[in-house]
Amino acid sequence: MTTLVDAPVTPAADDASARRRWAGPIGLGLIGLVSFIFFGIGSGGGNETTFSVARQSDFFTIPTLTVPSQLTATALSVIALALAGLAVWATLQRRTLGWWLPVVFTIAVMGSLLTWAGAGREGTNVQITGLLTSAIVLSIPLVFGALSGTLCERSGVINIAIEGQLLFGAFLAALVASATGNAYAGLVAAPLAGALVGALLAIFAVKYWVDQIVVGVVLNVLVIGLTSFLFGSLMRDNPNLNQSMSLGRLPVPVLSEIPIIGPVLFNHNALVYIMYVTVIVLHIMLFKSRWGLRVRAVGEHPKAADTVGIKVNRTRVRNVILGGAIAGLGGAFFTVAAGLAFGKEMTAGKGFIALAAMILGRWSPKGALLAALLFGFADALRLQLGIMGSPIPSQFLGMLPYLATIFAVAGLVGFAKPPAAEGKPYKK
Amino acid sequence: MSESTATTDRSSADGPESEGSPEEAGRDFGRLMREITQSDLLVVVFAIFAAMLLGGLLVVLADKDVLATTGYFFSRPGDFFAAVGGTLSSVFTTMFQGAIYNTNASDVAVGIRPFTQTLTVATPLILAGLGLGLGFRAGLFNIGAQGQIIIGATVGAYVGFAWDLPVVLHLIVAVVGCVLGGAIWGFIPGFLKARTGAHEVITTIMLNYIALNLVSFALSKTAFQRPGSTNPQSPLIAETAEYPLILGSAYNLHLGFLLALAAAGGVWWLLERSTWGFQFRAVGANPHAARTAGMSVSKVYILVMVTAGALAGLAGSAQILGTEHSLTAGVAASFGFDAITVALLGRSRPLGIVFAALLFGALRAAGPALQVQAGVPVDIVLVIQSLIVLFIAAPPLVRTMFRLPAPAHVKEVAA
């Protein structure tokens, strides 16, 4: 059966007897080469790129950093190529490299891209701090959604309804916050909404053995219909039930004063801190606790789990409801955390990107976090390049998460293997 | 996945039997009654009934006139029930008038306009639903109709406005363009599934968004932009590339509808009478057995997805050449997703899909009238639609709700 390891994100083969997987290293090499030719050489000699990191509100200011574009972009591309070379070497040696490699590789290529985009633009700085901050913020619903998917799929239930859970969470958060006049009440209501959708998924998938993908797809339609309907009737007739309420910023004392790291990580609203805690707790619980072992057993081999006395269907129902609650909490991002009123279909497919993050993150909370951050960063980059007026069409950056996911599921970059029993109802 | 296909196949195996044994049933009235109450058709009817009821309930609960009467419910309950009755009757009357026959019209020609609108809206639903149903029968859960419609419509639109061709030829070439565009977009997940085992649910969802990004990219380029317009929309397609209106210019019903019916016949023939269709169904029932029997499962996956994509591309042609005439990013509306519910409701059978598409087409056609006359947001249609499919997907739930006897084969499974 499948080994239950927290598979590190690595392009190399996991097993000495396995066939060497060349697609990963070759992919990295190609991306590095593109980075070298387009961003490195393409930056043009004599141009300079200015990065600004500090904001006026900071504890002490760091001056802007101006670097020669071509040299910097080329150097970063060479680092990326070297990492690709390392991946090739590791594949030859049948060694496994840690998750740091793709992370550092991505940072190098992104740095090269930013240097190129900012090359020779007088007066337009690349706002590093702003970029990273918005990357964190934009990844919130993706992280919660991907965690929800991870929790459900680890127990063997496919959760396509993440989108619906996010949307219903966003809706109820806005409704309750507006009705009570307290944004935090919305933050409490959001997970309840998600859990409700999760409970429906659990009833149909576990009790009635309906195809999990069918239920998920239909639940998404149901939530879109229901929230849009109530938005157009109840909320339109009573505008005071849909106001823009906002969770205030809660800067962490001292930590938020650190340059760059402070504003990026520790100057947010409560939802972001909840996200940090949720990721850490879930990762430890899933891989280090008895509960986590049971959940994974149910997802990989329900019959074996049943034999040793684990209640398979009860575990699944609980996990799906808990997962729904987590995704619902992520839905609060769209309304109370962003300080916006509810809008029709405002989640705009983020639930599906979260699904993609879950797959890229290989069904682990830590991986889900990294993948969601990557997608959040791609989104932030799209916005920043849009402001700077970059030659890359924003639609291509918009496609990036989806393309990455297709490559991942097709096994071109590493290999994503879902829990063995997912999608199959358990019948004694 | 395999379970649901197994269930549908079992029901399909039962279908012809119950239809094909009228003499026996006639001899034994009790047995006929049992067959009717145990049949899937009755579940479908009750599911639709329950969904409409819940939808109506939702409208009533959100209605401001009804809400106003709840304030003094105990002093004058009559007002509350009058408001509920008034809202319900206005909703269902408006739906009937918006989708089937406008009883307020002066003559029949105007009166049947809503019905032709229902047929027009049903056209892309039939076509895309056929494609998805074909996939379900082969065990492929294709969520990618949306992207396939978009790419098909994009190619068709380009042929329609950029090329200058003689009358009949232009339409044919444009339709072929739509079909090719959809087929290519269907080929990708089929190929990936066959070659790498990449799950088609994930790849098709992702391809939907890639298609959306592609079309909005295309619309930002001069080749696709309407001269003098800053909106992301293409020029109008040439009249030579439009589907002719089959009932004259007073109605929107276009040739695409007849094409959809023909496609339904074609898909029926393909599935039930051709060798390929047999292979499709065999792979859907059990890919391992099909492989053992010497069928190429990979080839079937690719072929099914290409055909499904081609049909979705035809749905795109109904949109671009039939009703929209100009490409926008929203050209597919939500037909690709609605088609999933159509295929599920139609149990992946061509005839079932046609009826399901007509039902959902009617619901959709009634949408604008609901919004304008009854003040009910169109989105109620989505609620009813998804409830119908949820109920149908879980026959035991409907049977419990309406206390119908369980069919024999379900009891066997439970035992």
Relevant terms:
heterodimer; A: 428 residues; mainly alpha; three-stranded mixed beta sheet; 5 strands; disordered N terminus; B: 415 residues; 20 helices; 0% strand; globular
What global shape of chain B is seen? globular
How many helices of chain A in DSSP terms? Answer: 17
The helix-and-strand class of chain B reads mainly alpha
Radius of gyration of chain B: 23 Å
Largest interface: A-B, 48 and 53 residues
The number of helical elements of chain B comes to 20
Low-confidence stretches of chain B: 1-22, 410-415
Terminal Cα span of chain A: 20 Å
Q: Structural class given helices, strands, pairing of chain A?
A: mainly alpha
The percent range for helix content of chain A is 55-70%
Catalogue the unreliable spans of chain A.
1-16
Roughly how much helix do the residues of chain B carry, as a percent range? over 70%
